[in-house]
Amino acid sequence: MGVTYVSQWNIPEGKNIQQGVEELQNKAEKLGAKKCGLFVVECESFHSTNAQNLKTLHTIHNSEYPASRFACFEDGSFLVTDVMLGTFLSKLRSVWQPKKGGKIESKGQRYEFGDFIIKIGIVSMGPSTKGIALELEYAPCRFPLDCWELMTEMLHELIDDQAPASLPQVIAQKPDANLAELTALQYIRLFNNLRKASMNR
Amino acid sequence: MNDASYHPLSADSASNVNLQEFFLQGSVLDGSIDKLFGRLQGICDNVKPEMFTDRERTYYLSTPGLTTSVMVKACKSVIQPSAPWQIKYIGNIEAADHTKPAMIRSNVTVAVSQDPSQFLEELGFILRYEVVLRGQFYRKGNLKVTVAKLLLNSGIAASTFDATKLEAANTSHLVEISALSLMRDDGAAEEVRHFAQLLAPIAMMEKVDHRRIQMHQ
Asked: What residue ranges are annotated as transmembrane (chain A) (predicted)?
């Protein structure tokens, strides 16, 4: 449970998603990262049948936190709950219903490289793949501002010119927030972007 | 998570199990409460009864197009500050079924990391009232027995909550026997009824049709 950066990795031109993933995995392995199991981050979104409530509720399940679920409103409150969240929401289904096409997940290989954890996932909605998600975690630190430079350096090694120029907005807005919350929020943002991108296509 | 006092309230598995709760309720005047405690001490598991003081906020969510609304309770222990907030969905009470010896409600409890008020409000819930229950908790195998005094807090907002400024709502204690079981498994109902008989005549535990009480209000 350290500081985490999540972002979409743009596939180089002329390659498909599978080739892109392999390229990224090769890069990680060349650096010396060791394969260490699989991971999955799932997101399910709900909307209210009440026309006055336009908010979207996102729930996240992250295999890194197997006994927790995260519930979050866009630009609103955030809660960490236990596994009963899904059952609870199913009881509210007269008002809160799963969005059509609201299930999206990132699934793939997890690597460990010293204190870093690298996760390379394929983002998919049902049967269709949407893109590649890269997650980098620096496990020993709990304060994003203290280790951001170290993480940027690592990101440059890993994804070169796609490394971020500055601290992601989600982290910059609340650097003192719960780290699991920051990870979940970054995934929600990533999933939203990929959903929008596929709608515009 | 490594904190020794961390007790996850539900494990990783069994997240989609549908549970029903059988229960019976009754009340005892404050004057006879010691007799009831004595009886419970005798018939329950031989462990010290647990004292509890819980805040309980009741929220309602109205369903568009329907007259019924969804009830959810947000609970927090006052005397165990490290225990998490809980959200409890409490389904409609089935009391009318004469073949069942106890009342039934579905019950889903979710432990949450922080005060869920804002989250519930964003879901559309409206806070109706807040009470504090102070009492003792006994157990016997599967059964949970609570004997609690209903206390009212003058200020409803979290900021004005003061455990020392609570007033008793009435001159009796609420007694509840409950047992969780899987759907369509009615064995627990019989267990609840049998236990209830052991409390007579100090407390009469009966099926109460809550809808009738509400109609008379």
From this structure: none
Residue (of B108, B105, B101, B107) closest to B186 by Cα position: B101
Estimate to the nearest angstrom the gap between the alpha carbon of B26 and the chain centroid.
Answer: 13
Tell me the per-residue pLDDT of A188-201, one tens digit each, with 9 for 90 and over: 999 999 888 877 76
Q: State the Cα–Cα distance between residues A98 and A89, nearest whole angstrom.
A: 9
- Would you call A183 exposed, middle or buried from its count of C-beta atoms within 10 A (0-12, 13-18, 19+)? buried
Domain ranges of chain B: 19-207
Architecture of domain B19-207: Beta Barrel (2.40)
Are A91 and B124 inside 8 Å of each other by CB? no
- The structural domains of chain A, ordered by start, are 3-196 (2.40.320.10)
Query: Tokens representing A25?
Result: 């995995």
Tell me the two tokens of residue A85: 């969240």
A to B CB pairs, distance under 8 Å: 83
> Burial level of A57, CB count in 10 A (0-12/13-18/19+)?
buried
Chain B residues in contact with A71 by the CB 8 A cut-off are 119
Judge residue B66's burial from the number of C-beta atoms within 10 Å of its C-beta, 0-12 exposed, 13-18 middle, 19 or more buried.
exposed
Question: B122–A50: do the CB atoms touch at under 8 Å?
Answer: no
What value of ipTM does the predicted structure carry? 0.85
